[in-house]
Amino acid sequence: MPELSLSVAGAQQSVAAGTTGTDLFGSDRAVVAVRVDGELRDLDVVLDGAQAVEPVTIDSPDGLSILRHSTAHVLAQAVQQVNPDAKLGIGPPITDGFYYDFDVETPFQPEDLKKLEKAMQRIVNTGQRFRRRVVTEEEARAELAGEPYKLELVGLKGSGAAEGAAEGASAEIGAGELTIYDNVARDREGNEVVAWKDLCRGPHLPTTKLIGNGFQLMRSAAAYWRGSEKNPQLQRVYGTAWPTKDELRAYTERLAEAERRDHRRLGTELDLFSFPDEIGSGLPVFHPKGAMIRMEMEDYSRRRHIASGYSFASSPHITKAKLFEVSGHLDWYADGMYPPMRVDEERDADGTLRRQGQDYYLKPMNCPMHNLIFDARGRSYRELPLRLFEFGTVYRYEKSGVVHGMTRARGFTQDDAHIYCTREQMRDELASLLTFVLDLLRDYGLNDFYLELSTRNPEKSVGDDATWAEATAVLEEVALASGLDLVPDPGGAAFYGPKISVQARDAIGRTWQLSTIQLDFNLPERFELEYTAADGSRQRPVMIHRALFGSIERFFAILLEHYAGAMPPWLAPVQVLAVPVAEPFNDYLEDVVAQLRAAGVRAELDDSDDRFNKKIRNATTQKVPFVLIAGGDDAEAGAVSFRFRDGSQRNGVPISEAVTIVRDAIADRVQV
Which member of 128, 367, 379, 421 is catalytic? Predict the structure, then answer.
């Protein structure tokens, strides 16, 4: 029998013709698929003609996607078992799970999902095999004649319009052959029978047995076919799947913890902010306690920026359309901008136009206005790098389905900086800027970072290839020099230049994009910015865009969730709450509060009529860092008792020492 020579898991090996992935790795239950010459394939693929094959384990990112996609097929099979009239939409894997869309007469209810889970488990337990078949368009149409949405996808595949046909459509009709997957079971006589089938690219698990019991249906929601409101509304069922029941349990516990930390819930419970309907979606207002946290965040940032050589700027909220025509925003970002306001038009009494009106836009970015500040007078190389900084409020028209509390708002304030420097200064400036960004984020209590490099999208960008290549190479060099992990983000750059983004993990392991650093050779060209070089020539500056928090609102929400509302003492809106054991000690503690306030501490006295135990519960609920308690013994000794957020207590602390303890904790930005 002829033999093949191929790389197996990185080692060259001779195997017999007709060898499959199952032959090589089938003894390892953790291996659920193979990567053949870089392409994911089913485990039973024949390897004739292959050059290299790598195992794909179920706990790897690709393996998890395959597990979840296979579970989505089992869900669809269960739905059609329970409701044979259900029509199939699309069912791709997504982050941490999967979904499948169905055309059903009655929307799914929570009790329906429980029934479907039981039906899925029965299918899983039978150990059906996933078997791939290549079909022609005509064969697919014949086999899927009763599935109108699948037929539409087949038509898109045949017309060459499959790419971008719909979110998740690539899981069914991506590049390559048109294929159907059969779920193969055995009848009572042991014969193979096709229990169900679906149009799909794959790959899939070898058998449903590998799904085990680590799956759960999470919720259902309405979803338009192919994401367009012009199309029928379907019912989408969301689920999750993990290699083991324990991993599923850990995931659901993480979800529960994330829900407890949801900044929208905490914002209400702690009276920090709200989203009044009278103002509009995605436009938050800060209440006094929330505004105090925000003020502390901003003030500390201002002090750090001053120490690092930044100059402060301020710009208006609206501007004429011409500015965004020059910057390119109206060409590349118009969908994210609010509609224009037409003003200054003048007409005679008979309606005759005397003066042409102008369009004004709410600004979505601060950078065009900072360019005007740079260009307001002649600049010398001696002024560079010029670092302009602004807490600038911007407005972006996010679709209503995208708006999410303060993490995706329509009006927000960016801590926006634009640095103008020479090309010779560029590398050092970027390196020091990244260090500045990471150090400042650490001061707010975030410590677990990696970097992402977003590169050019040729369809949505300005400038020449050489300029983009230089900018990207410089950013990559600086990112790698930081020592942090660097992850590529192909096509994710802004239209004017590549960027590094700082990705931070919070207390429960979620990743948030925070600071962005964007290198830009294009806007200085569009605005014709110049400085006088040492030799007297006129040169273009390099422009660096930098948002450290991203936005105050979003960073506020991230910190609130990171700390589960228990903000560190330096950020807490109320840093000390004084609670008397009984009413006679109000005056004593009022004097203690006065001393704390004189030391710059935000302290309050709870002199309400509530009982002592309720006052302590209120302080705990409001997550106050320090509670100072005083009764008879404390008053006689000129002392107070500390009660900390973790429930521990320290008694008999002299007042002067208590003031020092609180003041030092605030000054040192301790994370208690």
Answer: 367
DSSP state of 364: S
Q: Which of 264, 396, 456, 643 is catalytic?
A: 396
Does the active-site annotation cover 416? yes
Q: What is the pLDDT of residues 291-328, one digit of tens each?
A: 999 999 999 999 999 999 999 999 999 999 999 999 98
CA dist 319 and 358 (Å) reads: 10
pLDDT tens column, 650-668: 999 999 999 999 999 999 9
User: Other CB atoms closer than 10 Å to residue 66's CB: what's the count?
Assistant: 25
Strand pairing category for 215-224 and 233-241: antiparallel
d(CA 520, CA 206): 49
CA distance 179 to 288: 60
In the residue annotation, 367 being an active-site residue is answered as yes
The torsion defined by the Cα of 532, 535, 537 and 539, in degrees rounded to 10, comes to -60
350 is catalytic: no
103 carries an active-site annotation = no
Rg over CA atoms, the chain: 31
Distance between CA atoms of residues 44 and 203, nearest Å? 10
Distance of CA 653 to the CA centre of its chain: 45
Can you tell me which residue has the tokens 């199939």?
A: 88
Distance between CA atoms of residues 161 and 621, nearest Å: 56
The C-alpha atoms of residue 310 and residue 296 are separated, in whole angstroms, by: 19
Predicted confidence at residue 672, as pLDDT, reads 67
Averaged pLDDT, 521-536: 93
Residue in the block written with tokens 């989203």: 275
Q: Is 418 a catalytic residue?
A: yes
Of 416, 520, 606, 634, which is the active-site residue? 416
Sketch out the chain's domains with CATH numbers: 3-57 (3.10.20.30), 62-251 (3.30.980.10), 285-345+360-562 (3.30.930.10), 576-667 (3.40.50.800)
The single residue of 41, 157, 379, 499 carrying the catalytic annotation is: 499
Question: What is the value of pTM for the model shown?
Answer: 0.84
* Helix, coil or strand: residue 348: coil
Is 206 in contact with 32 (CB distance < 8 Å)?
yes
Active site includes 396? yes
Q: Catalytic residue at 263?
A: no
d(CA 458, CA 475): 18
Structure tokens at 343: 């003003």
Contact between 220 and 108 under an 8 Å Cβ cutoff? The reply is: yes
The residue annotated as part of the active site, out of 150, 261, 363, 418, is 418
